[in-house]
Target: Alanine racemase
Amino acid sequence: MVAGIHRNAQAIVDLGAIKQNVELEMNRLAKGQELFAVVKADAYGHGMLEVAKTAKEAGATGFCVAIIDEGLALREAGFDDLVLILGVNPADQACLMAQNDLSVAVGDLEFLQTAAPLLAQKSLKLKVHLAFDTGMGRIGFTNEADVKAAEQFIAEHQEQFVFEGIFTHFACADTQDMSYYQVQITKFNQLKKALTRLPKYVHVANSAAAMWHQDCGGNAIRYGITMYGLNPSGRELTLPVAIKPAFSLESELVLVRKLAKGSGIGYGKTYTLDEDAYIGTVPLGYADGWLRRMQGFKVLIEGQYCPIVGRICMDQFMVKLPKAFKKGTKVTLIGQNGDKTITAQDAADYARTIHYEILCNISQRVPRIYHK
Ligand SMILES: *Cc1c(COP(=O)(O)O)cnc(C)c1O
Model:
């Protein structure tokens, strides 16, 4: 996708905040525990390579991604750290992953069975992390017999596989009610016992577990959303650490005009001025990830909230202004402006989603500007 490097809209990524957020967590780790920075989906929209570099400087010893290509991009950029692909990937790409020293989540025996002959043919060894499905219902082994069979298969194919890790993923580590978390941790320990020996890495914690279930165990954590300065639980639980959001989204007024009472604004004429009013145009739209459902939400201009009026267009939207702001005045969609702030959580509340989704949606057309 073409990035809009000449446009007047940008995401500002505060790498200093990311560094600080990682360092805060490094200080909370148990002895010997490692931190893997989760940088999938272009580091939740922040920019994968810059974030990876920053996280590494702050102490991260590995990276988690979701798909093979994200792992390849890290290798191409020269990262020689552990790179774990968390999702189920095509087993027929086993050689590509092994050649690039990517570790991969294994969700079933069939993956190993398909990969083994391909790896053998090329004398390659693939690092694998067995996923245990303890209640997420997504990927992984659900019972002891299957875990044993996978371990056995790996043991019989030592020239093809390195048994590097086991892990699970929590569905409810971010809620007040801890009962389901307890169910999952119990199940994990039960499945773990089916193994005759433990691999190098045992990892269970995502950000939420790292925040509110520090005793969940394992010798690595998969640190995602909290690294970016956002609360994994949304507004439900209070964070034990003072993290700082790293992402701001800014643009500017490209046009300010006084429109007459009765004027319609945007497609479908969903908004009609009930008085003469100043209307500003912002050059950013749903193709940039500022979704149509943000109609009626607000932006910050010179420290004042201004409502988004009319439908969000593909590349532009309009705001109602309290006065004739100058053309070129900064518009903050996410971030601080004056003494006020719009958070990704605020945007998520309005769009009835989670902040993860708001940030992942900001498209590659919006250039990322990095502040140290
Ligand atoms: C995305 C993901 C994470 C990171 O989750 P956060 O809530 O961002 O910390 C950790 N583990 C797995 C398996 C994931 O898919």
